[in-house]
Design brief:
Layout (H helix, E strand, L loop, with lengths): L7 E4 L9 H7 L11 E4 L8 E4 L8 H4 L27 H5 L6 E3 L4 E3 L5 H4 L6 H5 L5 E4 L1 H7 L3 E9 L2 E12 L11 H4 L17 H4 L1
Parallel strand pairs: 1-8
Antiparallel strand pairs: 1-6, 2-3, 4-5, 7-8
Length: about 210
Amino acid sequence: MSVPDHLHFYIDPNRCIGCQACVQACAECDTHKGDSMIHLEYVNRGESVQTVPVVCMHCDQPTCAEVCPADAIKRTDDGVVQSALKPRCIACGNCVLGCPFGVPEVKIDQQLMQKCDMCYDRSSVGKKPMCTTVCPSQALFFGTREQIEQLRPRSRPVREFHFGRQTITTRVHMMVPKDVQKNYVDITAAMEERAAARHVALKVIDDPFAEVQA
């Protein structure tokens, strides 16, 4: 069995209310044995309580698999990137460093990388991933393109992301406002920035022990 081509995973950050229902539901999935493969990130914790759910984006050319020295990460023919195979994974963490979306996590106690596999045991037989069944605001949605367009007429799905000169396409779609122009964020640009010149002046103070020593 495989995930049907007409069914897609959609993330709408604007609708996330930070309730953690997806996190709890993911941990209860039989294949995860109590560990959640989804987490919430704060957009700007200092100024807002806005959160965004983070799951594996299931890249068409997954960097995590490309940097795995043990060939432990496989992508199925239907575009779902699986967790590391236990007999192969050496828990080196290369996948953690290589993923541009910050998704994989090495479970130290299990010496194994685990991440969202789109509830493959469910989605490959036509069922929805656990997290999408409990999300009260439908920030996480699993369905057809027609359904999401009907539900969100003011938004459009995006599955192409740019990291410097690298373009990554994914099976998971991110919902963005329809009237917003493409705005590429080059997260590698900061690496080329030079620190602003600083003038450092050290104030010379009198030695308080000078008279004692004399």
